[in-house]
Amino acid sequence: MYRRLVINALSVMVLLLPLFFLVPPAYAHFEHFTHYNNRGGDVGPHYAYEALEPEYAAPNEPVAVMFSVQDHDGRDTYNIHTMVEIYSAKTGERLNAWPWTQQEIGDFHVFYNFPELGSYQIVLSVAKDGNPVNPNSIDPPRATLSSNTGCNCDRAIFNVSITENLGSIWNAMMLISISLPLSVLGGVLAWNYRRMIKSGKYPKSAQRDTARYIIMLAAIAGGVVHLAVYAEHASLRIEYSIFLLVAAGMQIVYGVVYTLLTLTGQGTNESAHQYHQKKVAINLFGLVGTGILLGLYAYSVILPPPLSPNDQAESISVAGILAKGIEVFTIIGIVYLMRLEKRQLAGQLKEQI
Question: DSSP of 273-313, one letter per residue?
């Protein structure tokens, strides 16, 4: 069962590799891949992406309305003429407009204070090639926002929602959902260790089990860190986020499968050698996978990573150092477990002779 699970997990990783070459490059050039109030759409021969900063925008506070306009191959655009408007979705009234402006590059932003809670519509107009645009002029408001009557331009409409405290609620729920399982597992380990120390009965087998659970907790924690940072890499290449999500899933799968195997113990109809082989297969999966992640990180901070859109090495971040520190500990722990289990198997075989 466990060998089949490991083979299936490796097969999934192999099958996902072509996605890194088939998925088109990320359109947005923002600092991170936002989860809320972001949209993308065609604007004639261009593709425009919109996001708010902060993404969970509240009323009566400065908000950056950001745009990234590229061609359909994800390349930058230059010297385009744009006009930006904001309408109330409830009344249809135009609340603000920024005049036609020549943008040196397709990445630009405007600032606006949304007056109240509710939904708004942001209209981006991009002049067609060869269209003479009067600088600082503003087109009159329209009942049909996408209409380009009288304007030799293309338009895209982005719907956004202004809320109160939604960002805090979302972040709190994500923090709880991620930290609670780890905290419970860590708390149980600490409580069990303290209980045995107080009782004066802490056999070597219990020590080994505690070490196993701590190492598996570290493996799962490494996956959680990857889940926390995957969105920051989507603005460079969407493939980077896909890779981080797959890596996080494999780390969590490894930790959970090994923990379940330890808890269930040796089956009644299997030999000690068969049980040992299951653990070896799972540990090799964790060891090789974690080693690959460390190697790729070292490569990416020294040289530009594969498919890099800016041909620059990755910057070293706190999250990266934390994740790699956990993974180094995990590798050391896996090697320790493999040696420990080999000694245990030798002792069991010696007793059977």
Answer: HHHHHHHHHHHHHHHHHHHHHHHHHHHHHHSPPTT-SS--P
340 and 222 in a common domain: yes
The SS3 assignment for 122 reads strand
Q: Which amino acid is at 216?
A: M
* Whether 337 contacts 264, CB under 8 Å: no
DSSP string across 55-71: SS--TTSEEEEEEEEEE
Phi-psi bin for 150: left (phi > 0), alpha (psi -120 to 50), beta?
left
Q: Please give the residue range of the domain that contains residue 139.
A: 38-162
Quote the DSSP letter at residue 24.
P
- Tell me: do 68 and 119 sit in the same domain: yes
Least confident span in 109-123, 153-167, 265-279 = 265-279
Which pLDDT tens digit goes with each residue over 101-142?
A: 999 998 999 999 999 999 999 999 999 876 667 778 899 999
Domain count, the chain: 2
